[in-house]
Amino acid sequence: MKQGTQGSARTGIPDAPVRGTRVPPQQRAADVDRNRDLADGAGAVRGEHTHSETPIPRPRQVLQRPSVRGQILDALRTALVGGELTPGEVYSAPALGDRFGVSATPVREAMQQLATEGAVEVVPNRGFRVVERGARELAELAEIRALIEVPVMLRLARTVPAARWADLRPLAEGTVRAASSGCRATYAESDRAFHRAVLALAGNEQLVQIAEDLHRRAQWPLVGGPATRGRADLVADAAEHLALLDALAAGEWDVVRSLVQEHFAGAA
Fold first, then answer.
1. pLDDT tier at 224, thresholds 50, 70, 90
2. How far is Cα 43 from Cα 34, in angstroms, rounded to an integer?
3. What does R_g of the chain's alpha carbons equal in angstroms?
4. How many other C-beta atoms are found inside a 10 Å radius of the C-beta of residue 161?
5. How wide is the angle at C-alpha 156 spanned by C-alphas 248 and 159, nearest 5°?
6. How far is CA 224 from CA 83, 120, 135, in A?
7. pTM for this entry
């Protein structure tokens, strides 16, 4: 937590609202049930007289209700990457629920997801502790990412037309703008979007998901401070995206290999 900024005694998160983390008020249970009845036609099951009504065909698309859990999960991930959730600290679901304006249930569910990803660990009767990570774990993640992504990018450099790489340039330029803002959370999201788009050209969804998980884990903060990489480091990292696109479009395989390996090593 930055000096001079007061935080909640229960959560350790700064009192200033986290950008983009406010969740709309939850519906009452009665409202949810009523909406479900209208969507699913459950009135007949509950004994209401519907035999004289003209049947209404089901919509071609199933309407999706907003996922509070999903919004909370995104908010917690942003707070984690941004250093607002401190490694080693314990946070309770009720206190975080108060922070986000929701009940403890979606917070607890989101925290359980983060626990399966290795970002937090369950502390019985207390809440969830943010995992403390060191440089060695980051280096190991960088090695694994290189083992997966380097061969894929080398294959793509041989098979993907230059015009397709040009289509990804706006995403690469977006990472430069995000890095210039100095916001780690904003850059982390933009960085993942670029790498995801590159790997998606391989047509292997399982590969994309595994690489995304490793990438997200590599962005978690280290012990000793919320940020080990400053704005200059983020800008340099983003510039490598543009250089990588140029090498991929030109089919310069050795340059691609070198850039990707150095890119992951720098991220660690």
1. low
2. 10
3. 23
4. 9
5. 100
6. 11, 17, 11
7. 0.68
